[in-house]
Amino acid sequence: MSEKTWILLTDGYYIKLLYISENDSTLKTYREADFDNSSEITYSLITRYKIDHSGNQTQPHSEDVETTDYTLKTMSEFLESKLEENAFRNLVILGPDEVLTALENNFSTDLLNTIRQKISGDYMNSPLDKLQEIIAKASRKE
């Protein structure tokens, strides 16, 4: 099983996927270190197709890709599939209150059980060092 904690930043439309490894407590972005995970969720979010993990086929989405519901559902499905692959063990979510609530409503019980922290606010444009401070500060408050 992975020792990674994934950090999901979202405003309901856009996402950033980051991680912290237990071996190295520095916050990193998946865009730099793991293009496969980053590109998979990005592809799903910006097209009307999603990857069928069983056969690597693409399947059309019937939902309107411009809606928050589509984005939240796609994020939930992506995280669920990665949890099943043991890509992460813990999850930290940063986003506005209404987005955090909507995500939790879309999450399975297994995915809900991985949530280590929920941090309310819009941090989409925050630099990595600032995000690491925010996460560490929230962790100390628990």
Detail the topology: elements first, then pairings.
Elements: E1 4-10, E2 15-21, E3 24-29, H1 30-33, H2 35-46, E4 49-52, E5 57-60, H3 68-84, E6 90-95, H4 97-106, H5 109-112, E7 115-120, H6 128-141
Parallel strand pairs: 1-6, 6-7
Antiparallel strand pairs: 1-2, 2-3, 4-5
Tags for this model:
two-stranded antiparallel ribbon; 142 residues; globular; 5-stranded mixed beta sheet; 28% strand; 6 helices; alpha/beta; Nucleotidyltransferase, domain 5; 43% helix
By CATH, the topology is Nucleotidyltransferase, domain 5
- Stretches where pLDDT is under 50 for at least 5 consecutive residues are 48-52, 57-65
Helix content: 40-55%
Fraction of residues in β-strands: 25-35%
Tell how many strands the DSSP assignment holds: 7
What structural class results from the helix and strand content? alpha/beta
Please state the average pLDDT score.
Answer: 77
Q: Count structural domains.
A: 1
- End-to-end Cα distance, whole Å, is 25 Å
**CATH class descriptor:** Alpha Beta
Number of helices, counting only DSSP H or I runs of 4 residues or more: 6
Q: What series of H and E elements makes up the topology?
A: EEEHHEEHEHHEH
Q: What is the name of the CATH superfamily?
A: eRF1 domain 2
Write down the overall geometry: globular
Main pleated-sheet profile: 5 strands, mixed
